[in-house]
């Protein structure tokens, strides 16, 4: 079971599940702002990382597959993560990696480290996904695997896999329900699903939520509500700024006050030279936000005019000017920027979620030639983050 470091919602949320008052009070709790003190100068909760030993807080950190340079490096890191006492190791469907293959490999080289697939995309069939998850769960042993599903994106789903993306919410809802129908049905019981977007015919796997919980990967409020409606937990997208993350967590806690673990990915730039770390984080955040599908996240954090000015610079090829628009505070909204020895405390400051998965910067910046980021730079970021997480 994942550790809970503090109560992120107050009693009012538990008493008034799903109400507007519950949402508002949870939001106040998560931002550290006392009700009635919009300026933020009211009473605030004491930071969790000041109350716990570093050994305990290591169990708030998860190892992301993105930290590993290749499959062999991944296996070495998950072994080290188990020894170090990290919360979990999380594989994912990446451009260069398969979530289920990496999770299965991690299962056979570890004995008790919790494993997560964060996330798999609806680019497989629901039956294929359910059977793969059940197989990995068998390899891992009792209650070690969490399956995460997310909508993906048009470039990945359609461009990469040749499967439809739209409408993402409706497709993910049906995909998840189909997968759950197969996983939750008694073992060997025939299961048939005929939906608008998916159909499946197979046999139940007999895996309940305790044996194989399902979480939904999300950023926007509608996906958060979907997670609260049908899933056993929530995994927030790594490109979710901290202020927005607090709002989304507040919404989830209002809808599901207890028994609903929430994790979050976040960019991490780790370097002994903080100015160099901040510069790397700025390039990565800029490159990510220049993708049209992510621009709205900047607008939500700032305003539409600022976001459009940023996007216009990108369209004109003036990407370094776009990067200069993002001040240090904005960059830190999207990324952990710290020295190696400060990573634990930086992650602990995200007290609104139970588990944090730091993702090394560089992959997005690599797509912008004007930034001059090389594959060697990306590997260096991976190795520094790996060393900070597991000493490897």
What does this structure look like?
With 392 residues, this protein is α/β, with parallel strands linked by helices. It is globular and about 60 Å long. The strands form two sheets. Strands 1, 2, 3, 4, 7, 8, 9, 10 and 11 form a nine-stranded parallel sheet that branches. Strands 5-6 form a two-stranded antiparallel ribbon. The relative contact order is 0.13. 46% of the residues lie in helices and 14% in strands. Helix 4 links the parallel strand 1 (62-64) and strand 2 (88-91). The longest helix has 17 residues, at 168-184. It has helices at residues 11-15, 20-31, 54-57, 71-84, 99-109, 126-140, 154-161, 168-184, 221-230, 242-255, 274-289, 295-301, 304-315, 319-325, 328-334, 343-348, 375-390; strands at residues 62-64, 88-91, 115-120, 145-149, 190-194, 199-203, 214-218, 233-236, 262-270, 335-338, 355-360. The chain has a domain at 61-237: Alpha-Beta Barrel (TIM Barrel), CATH 3.20.20.
Q: Concise description?
A:
With 392 residues, the chain is an alpha/beta fold. The protein is built from 17 helices and eleven strands.
Residue runs with pLDDT of under 50 for 5 or more positions: 1-53
> Which whole number gives the mean pLDDT?
88
Determine the number of helices (DSSP H or I, runs of at least 4 residues): 17
Instruction: Find the structural class using helix and strand composition.
Output: alpha/beta
Strand residue content: 5-15%
Q: What radius of gyration results from the CA coordinates? A: 20 Å
* N-to-C order of helices and strands: HHHEHEHEHEHHEEEHEHEHHHHHEHEH
CATH class of the domain at 61-237: Alpha Beta
CATH architecture of the domain at 61-237: Alpha-Beta Barrel
CATH homologous superfamily assignment of the domain at 61-237: Luciferase-like domain
Overall helicity: 40-55%
Number of strands: 11
CATH topology of the domain at 61-237: TIM Barrel
**Gap between N and C termini, in Å?**
25 Å
